[in-house]
Amino acid sequence: MSNKFNIKGNKSAKLIELLSKTDKRRVHDLYLCSCYFSAEAIKLLNDEIQDKTNIKIGNIYVYVDRRSALSAGHDEIERIKNWEKNNNFFFRIVDSEVLFHTKAYALISEDKDEIQSGSLVIGSANLTGSGLTRSRNGNIESLLDTQDKEFISDFLKRIESTKVIKIDELERFTSSDSVAFIYALLRQGHFSHKWSDNIGQYLSVRHSLNKKGKLELSNSELINLGFNVDAASIGKRYFDFEYEPLHLEGHENLIRNFGIETYLGHWVPSSSIKTLFNDADYDKFSKKISEYWLKEKFALIKKINDDFDELLQLDYVDKPENSPGDAFESKVNDFLKNDMKLYRAYAKFEFYDLPYDISQDDYILSLDEEIRDFITSRVKKNKAMKAYEEAIFSSSLTPIQDLANDNLVNVN
Q1: End-to-end distance of the chain based on CA atoms, in angstroms?
Q2: Do residues 145 and 119 lie in contact, with contact meaning Cβ atoms separated by under 8 Å?
Q3: How many of the other CB atoms lie within 10 Å of CB of 181?
Q4: Across the chain, how many H-helices and E-strands are there?
Q5: What is the bridge-based pairing of β-strands 89-94 and 164-165?
Q6: Which of 297, 311, 343, 366 has its CA 20 to 30 A from that of 126?
Q7: What value, to the nearest 5°, has the Cα angle with vertex 325 and ends 323 and 330?
Q8: Exposure of 116 by Cβ count < 10 A (0-12 exposed, 13-18 middle, 19+ buried)?
Q9: Contact at 8 Å (CB) between 141 and 147?
């Protein structure tokens, strides 16, 4: 028995080194068992084992947690389904109310149900890029190996007795109260969050007050200059640009027809938001805000510097190294170059995924309970509420997925 403790780089190579401590004359089955996984990591590890060792691989068995498979996404699962067309690849999804949290990797050769040769590696590394196959910026992991046939036999008996389902059964459920079903149901939607700040607020100019300035917070001169006053600084909006995106009315209709209120924002079935945003309208917004800045830039910078000069004359602020106008110009230019910030300002809200990890059962169950209570309290239910209720009643995701064929919000 040996070990590899607290390793960060070349983890897959070190794993293969430990797995290779076996009788290379024999055909071995490969076992990859992990809670979290990625299709890329499965392929890379399998390829490396076959390319870098002289060990002939018979069957390949991959065991993963059901909730992890649900969160992997359709494309990952489809890639794996294609691999299953090969006769020696078996993808097994562990169906359990608690997480399948095993991280074990093994090469095992059997003859008449007896272990003839093998190597078993257990540790902290998941079957992911950060866990095993990524050469940079991966996690720090530990691996421990054994070639003891009794240990390996016990591992094999336990893993083969685990309750598993096939890929085609991944989204079929027998109970609407199972964490796996609730997790899968919540992931059928996104949460809508509205941004409270507008562009003027985001690009507002703030000045730190000196000792005298702090004593004059209630002075009407600051108010007359248009500054908002707090305990230690003052701020003012200069960038006066407004744009009403086409999708805002569509968003209101979306929330009314498909939204379910939660403490995370409105939960909305993903299929109902596919056509909400309009790329052409965003391009129009981006062009107009750039034109506004080009037209108003020098006047705004002058106004900012003039206001600051008055504050200097009042001795409320200290003179900085760079002028406030230059700092403002730099901030606006950076904002206009940042696609993520610019799109957020345009959208005025965003949709985001369920923020809970598959291990956070309490949060997942609590959110589902809140949604069920909210739906029950409504006399008039919208389409998403009715579909959520039907999904719970039937232990099926189909009612939510069928909303894709309903009246999608379209602002094009």
Answers
A1: 64
A2: yes
A3: 24
A4: 16, 15
A5: antiparallel
A6: 366
A7: 100
A8: middle
A9: no
Calculate the alpha carbon distances from 17 to 4, 14, 48 in Å: 10, 5, 11
Element (H, E) at 79: helix 74-83
Provide the strand spans (E) within 275-393.
Answer: 349-352
Cα-based angle 149, 110, 131 (whole degrees, multiple of 5): 70
**Euclidean distance between CA atoms 123 and 146, whole angstroms:** 12
pTM of the complete model: 0.74
Whole-number Å distance between alpha carbons of 235 and 307: 11
Cβ(42)–Cβ(32) under 8 Å?
Answer: yes
The strand pair at 56-65 and 89-94 is best described as parallel
Cα 339 from Cα 170, distance rounded (Å): 37
Cβ-proximal residues to 110 (8 Å cutoff; 6+ apart), any chain: 29, 116
From the list 113, 123, 125, the residue with the least C-alpha distance to 149 is 113
Q: Is 33 helix (H, G, I), strand (E, B) or coil?
A: strand
What's the pLDDT tens digit per position in 348-403? 888 889 999 888 999 999 999 999 999 999 999 999 999 999 999 999 999 998 88
Burial class, 260, CB count within 10 angstroms (exposed 0-12 / middle 13-18 / buried 19+): buried
Pseudo-torsion of CA 342, 345, 347, 348, nearest 10°? 160
Are 132 and 126 spatial neighbours (Cβ–Cβ below 8 Å)? yes
Task: Identify the residue whose tokens are 């209630």.
Answer: 218
pLDDT in tens, 89-147: 899 999 988 889 999 999 999 988 889 999 999 988 888 888 777 766 677 788 899 99
The phi and psi torsions of 202 (rounded to 5 degrees) equal -65, -40
